[in-house]
Each structure stands twice: as structure tokens, then as C-alpha cells.
Design a protein that fits this description.
Number of helices: 11
CATH superfamily: NAD(P)-binding Rossmann-like Domain
CATH class: Alpha Beta
Structural class: alpha/beta
Number of strands: 10
Shape: globular
Strand content: 5-15%
Radius of gyration: 18 Å
Distance between the termini: 35 Å
Order of helices and strands: HEHEHEHEHHEHEEHEHHEEH
CATH architecture: 3-Layer(aba) Sandwich
Oligomer: single chain
Number of domains: 1
CATH topology: Rossmann fold
Strand order of the largest sheet: 3-2-1-4-5-6-9-10
Helix content: 25-40%
Largest sheet: 8 strands, mixed
């Protein structure tokens, strides 16, 4: 992939979600945003609602979701726990209309200690990838019914920390590290976008992955108090939540992305493949293993087997 082939847009680092959707009309369509009770999730939902889309906030904490939805015209709230198969299946079963947009935004970051779900899955991989994978598969028919549906898979530059280690997904044998586990799950988010587009483009469904940027939200609640300050000292520029939601909203709505899938974006532009983590600019670039079709195929098969 050469730089000339990468998709660029009129928007960039400083753009907000509201600016990205200006003039876009999605009246009559439906959208789901997971983890939309705070941070970039609620700003993503707010921007999508401004286009006329009917937005559902899929959240674990319904009370927090209702508080967020109170400021979003026409928004509704549904309970969704991405670590609970029954909750995911119930959510998908309740959905009976065509679905235009699915924004897989919810996530956990850098849990300080290895935690497992009841199935024995590492918590970050289970929440960030497997839960969203099960949700998307469960909503496939609703997405296909729309005819030109889009999935946004919220990843991170943290994916540069680790590929998916297929032989030890849940850290049974290797040493658990908070960012190693987070990085693996974020690579899985990109590979999901590649795999979903490969399988579902014929159904009118495309998926892309996004790095929102450096935003101080509840996502960093498991990190020490000085983490953000250290990152800024290292050259990371911070965004507001409204700016952080811009690239997700761009992928969800822009005519420039019609029919485009299996790609990774940051700052409202497709990112260049980098040869190493050290070669990547702060928070930018995508690792080759995250876009590898063979990796995406293997992850899809492994994920399908895990969720049964």
C-alpha cells in the first residue's frame, strides 16, 4: 500500500464530530453505539443523532446511559454487557429493524492484573473483541437488511504494542502485561474490520477501524495519575471528546467512505503501514499484522469457535 492510495478527507486532527456530519442527512436510518454513556461514545451518538438517525445507546449501566441520552434528541437506551453472552444475544434478538450503523465503541484499557471471564477468557480480549464480535454476528441480518450498512470498530494505536498471539490468547503461559493485553485486543479490532468486510461486503456491509486519538476519559481509569502527563511530555497531543469522536463519525457517515472497508483511520485519514513501533509517529500508523488477511481469517475462525 503506497501513500498515494491512502484515503484522505477535508478533516483532520482538530475536526469535531459535529463538523464532520455537517450537511449529512441520515433520516430514517438506525444506529447503535456501544459504550455511549460517556466519553467519545456519547459524542459519537450525539453527532449521529444530529443527522436525523435514530440512535440507540447500548450500555452496561442503564442509568448512566439514560442520563447521557437525555441530551440527545430521539436517542434510546438498551442494556448491553459485552462480557455476558446472554446479554448480547438478548440485545440482538430484540433488534427487529434494518440497522444502518453499528459503532463498536465500548472498551476497557490496561487492566492492572489478569482477569478472566466466566469462560476463562482474558477480560480485555473478551470485552473489546469477542463481545463486539458476537454482537456484530448477531446483528448481521439487520445490517444486511439495510443494504449499505457500516460498522465502525474503535481500535487504538495501542495495537502497535502486540499482534494477536493465537497460541496464548488469554495469557495462560506468557506473562500478563496490561498494555500487552490491551494491544492484542486492539489489533483484534482492526482484524475484525478486515474480516467483516471480506465476508460481508457482498451483503452490503463494510467495516473500518479507527484510532480516536489521545483523549482523557474514563477509559484510562485503571492507569496511574501521571500517565496522561507523561504521554503529553512524550509529544502526544490531546483531543477533546468531540474531536475524538470525529474519525468514528466520519467512517460512519461520510460519502467518501461509501463501499470502503477493511482499513484503519486516525485523524480523519487512512493510516500508513509502519515497519515498526518506533517508526510510527505518536498515535499514528498501522502495523502490517493488523491488516493481514490471513490473520483476519484465523481470528474469525478462532472467535467463531470461542463464542460457539
Amino acid at each position: 500500500m503506497t501513500q498515494a492510495e491512502l484515503i484522505t478527507t477535508p478533516f483532520g486532527f482538530d475536526s469535531t464530530a459535529a463538523e464532520v456530519v455537517e450537511g449529512i442527512d441520515l433520516s430514517g436510518t438506525a444506529a447503535i453505539v456501544t459504550g455511549a454513556s460517556s466519553g467519545i461514545g456519547v459524542e459519537t451518538a450525539r453527532a449521529l443523532a444530529s443527522t436525523g438517525a435514530r440512535v440507540t445507546l447500548a450500555v452496561r449501566d442503564v442509568r448512566a446511559g439514560e442520563q447521557a441520552a437525555a441530551g440527545i434528541p430521539g436517542a434510546s437506551v438498551e442494556q448491553l454487557d459485552l462480557t455476558d453472552a446472554a446479554s448480547i444475544d438478548a440485545f440482538a434478538a430484540r433488534w427487529t429493524e434494518p440497522l444502518h450503523l453499528l459503532v463498536n465503541n465500548a472498551g476497557v484499557m490496561a487492566l492492572p492484573e489478569r482477569r478472566l471471564t466466566r469462560e476463562g477468557w482474558e477480560m480485555q480480549f473478551a470485552t473489546n473483541h469477542l463481545g463486539h464480535f458476537r454482537l456484530a454476528v448477531g446483528l448481521h441480518d439487520a445490517l444486511a437488511a439495510d443494504g449499505r450498512a457500516r460498522i465502525v470498530s474503535v481500535s487504538s494505536s495501542g495495537h502497535l504494542q502486540s499482534p494477536v498471539i493465537f497460541d496464548d490468547l488469554h495469557f495462560a503461559f506468557r506473562e500478563y502485561t496490561p498494555f500487552g493485553a490491551y494491544g492484542q485486543s486492539k489489533t483484534a479490532n482492526v482484524l475484525f474490520a478486515v474480516g467483516a468486510t471480506e465476508r460481508w461486503a457482498q451483503d452490503g456491509i463494510t467495516a473500518n477501524a479507527v484510532m480516536p486519538g489521545g483523549i482523557a476519559t474514563r477509559l484510562q481509569r485503571h492507569l496511574d495519575d501521571g500517565y496522561i502527563e507523561r504521554r503529553v511530555a512524550e509529544g502526544v497531543r490531546l483531543k477533546t471528546a468531540e474531536q475524538g469522536a470525529a474519525t468514528s463519525v466520519l467512517l460512519a457517515t461520510s460519502p467518501l467512505l461509501e463501499g470502503v472497508g477493511g482499513r484503519y483511520f486516525a485523524d480523519c485519514a487512512e493510516q500508513e503501514v509502519v515497519p515498526s513501533r518506533e517508526a510510527a509517529p505518536p498515535l499514528l500508523g498501522v502495523a502490517p499484522y493488523a491488516l493481514d488477511r490471513d490473520n483476519a481469517e484465523r481470528l474469525w475462525e478462532v472467535s467463531t469457535a470461542l463464542i460457539g
